[in-house]
Amino acid sequence: MTKTINKSENLTRVALAGAPNVGKSTLFNALTGMSQHTGNWAGKTVEIAEGDCNRPDRQYRFVDIPGTYSLSSRSPEERVAEEYIRCGDADVVVVVADATRFRACVPLLLQITAIAESCVLCLNFASAAERRGAILDTDELESIFGIPVVKVDARGKRGLDELFSVIDRAKGGTPRRLIIEGGIDRSAFTDDLFITYPHLALDEYPLRDARIDRILTGRKTAFPVMALLLALVLFITVYLANYPSAWLASLFEWVMGGVSRLLVWLHAPDSLHSLVCDGVLGTLATVVSVMLPPMAIFFPLFTILEDSGYLPRIAYNLDRPLACSGACGKQALTMCMGLGCNAVGVMGCRIIDSPRERLAAILTNSLMPCNGRFPTVILLSGIFFASGIGGFPGGAVTALALTITVLLGVVLTFLVTRILTATLLRGEPSFFTLEMPPYRRPDFVRVLTRSLLDRTLSVLKRAVAVAAPAGLVIWLLANVRVGGGTVLSYITSTLDPVGRFLGMDGTILAAFILGLPANEIVIPIALMSYAAEGGLAEMSSGAVAEILTSNGWTAATAVCVTVFSLCHFPCSTTLITIKRETGKLRYVALAALLPTLLGAILCALINLVSGFFV
Amino acid sequence: MDEKETTLAAIKVGECLTVNRIFGNAAKRLFDLGFSSGASVRCLGTAPLGDPLMLSVGGRVIAVRKRDLASITVWKR
């Protein structure tokens, strides 16, 4: 982004300003869709998102200024927000306010109208406010604040046309400025305003919210509800993902069949055929059909919880235990994101203000098992702990095993965070506040379309980028012969002593290492190695059970593999994300070493203990 | 009138107190959130393990740790 003053007639630059939690980002997304990108304005460190909207008669460029509670010069975000508004780069500043909590938005509105050339007040959640009894007359509000006013519903994309006409009006006309100069007490003005116009304000904590909070944050019910909700989300993700997984697998089979025939027709050598079909395409098929469906289900579920207003309650409930571990409540949210994908969880750590606490959250995120590790846990618990129990009860047992694994991950996260904040990341607890938004009905359609499209596309891109080269490498290792065996068998036998010490074996360890690009391929690599196959292949769980037991697997082995799956280095995408977010290689190394060390210790202990029971 | 000066950390659920002074490192951030002198604060509840407190101030609902509330003084009977 450059600080150009491009005041061309047909391009209107609009800044979106406002406090956090007013739906500014939702509005920005609704206005700019896929065209948005982030960048650093005038070389500052705060990232700003920019996007375009092309209407039939005009072009608009929207700039999403960081959400702040005030325009003072305290934090980098506030400084950038104030500077951007003051510099006049934007033709119009749209102040987004939450109509259901309008009173809280007035102070910032007054600050902005004092310094911006042209302003517009955009009341988001207007229909929700009116349904609850607020009377929002745009003419009345215009006469109070001296700027054009518009009512929108960002989630439902309503009122956007009116927003554009109001922006045009603000750009074109001379602003009728609200006479609030220095010296006039803004809070007195606000108090008087809502005494004179009581119909503008709603109770910020309605009875309905109080009732819901009594259950979701009550002393006896908060934790059971969270655990139940976790189990439910896991169960839905795992259960629903089976269908698209199977469908994708057959799609890939069809594609592979076509490519295979093409290669045969081109008289390609057998090794090339195997490399492309078994190696590259086989790995791609496994990764995509296993990775895509759970994430496409998990993240919409997560967004629904976010939209409803429940997520801050999770952070609120878990702030005390996290504070005892030296962290803050927002880490609970990054842990939830990490359940879907650790790379997303690491990026999500931006919501944590304190750099020390943010680092703790980043370094421990991989202790929350991502969607990619679910299949490992499910497969193994299905074979070793729920054998013989089919259908729905069998599914429930594996969902339970998964929930227990996740809870173990939670416990370990608290433990490791405690150790980190007592040693490497020592410091004072940060100032922690969390705004609790009102409970709102999520817009399911918007969540589904937005989450599905965004998430699916980005996962797909990443899977292809990572899985194709990984498939190539794995094929080479499994098929290039050196000395008496393949390179892979050599690696496997070298790692065997270490593997056995950890209650596993060389094959499993090699599989974990080769699974660095994507956790989904760990078990498939192990199976391929056991069966001395040339590539990853689909197997029924019966066939898998056969192979594992005939290679010496016991229930103890399954436990060790599950624990190591929980506690080992993050996948390559996550490691790259950590480098991007922290900027330092040493944190990447730490993020890889910490969980692996923990996993090794735990597995060695389990192996030791299980030795006494055999 | 036997009111004594105490901090907002002593607020009980359902109670409504008026802010007297804010001091300390977090003072400016608290001010931005609505804890200005003379502002009315209502305690809406506590987290299951006792901390943080859910408060309503300036038309906003926020969770604040008792530790940070200790830097806000109020008059209480």
Description:
The complex is a heterodimer of chains A (614) and B (77). Helix content of chain A is 62%, strand content 8%. Chain A is built from 24 helices and 10 strands. In chain A, the strands form 2 sheets. Chain A has a 7-stranded mixed sheet with strand order 2-3-4-1-5-6-7, with helices on both faces. In chain A, strands 9-10 form a two-stranded antiparallel sheet. In chain A, helix 3 links the parallel strand 5 (92-98) and strand 6 (119-124). Chain A is elongated and about 85 Å long. With 77 residues, chain B is mainly beta. In chain B, strand 3 (40-46) and strand 4 form a beta hairpin. The longest helix of chain B has 7 residues, at 27-33. The N and C termini of chain B lie close together (8 Å). The model of chain B has no long low-confidence stretch (mean pLDDT 90). The A-B interface holds A 69-70, 72, 74, 101-107, 187, 201, 204-205, 210, 213-214, 217-220, 222-223, 312, 316-317, 319-321, 323, 329, 429, 431-438 and B 25-26, 28-29, 32-34, 36, 38-39, 44-45, 47-52, 54, 56, 58-65, 67-68. Strand 8 of chain A pairs antiparallel with strand 5 (60-64) of chain B.
Key traits:
heterodimer, A: 614 residues, alpha/beta, 24 helices, elongated, B: 77 residues, mainly beta, six-stranded antiparallel beta sheet, 43% strand
The overall strand count of chain B is 6
Mean pLDDT of chain B: 90
Give the overall form of chain B: globular
* Straight-line N-to-C gap of chain A: 66 Å
Structural class of chain B: mainly beta
User: How many helical stretches of chain A?
Assistant: 24
Question: Can you give the mean pLDDT of chain A?
Answer: 88
Separation of the first and last Cα atoms of chain B: 8 Å
| Total DSSP E strands of chain A | 10
| Strand residue content of chain A | 5-15%
Ranges of chain B where pLDDT stays below 50 over 5 or more residues in a row are: none
Kindly state the percentage of residues in helix of chain A: 55-70%
Quaternary state, please? heterodimer
Order of helices and strands of chain B: EEHEEEHE
Largest sheet of chain B: 6 strands, antiparallel
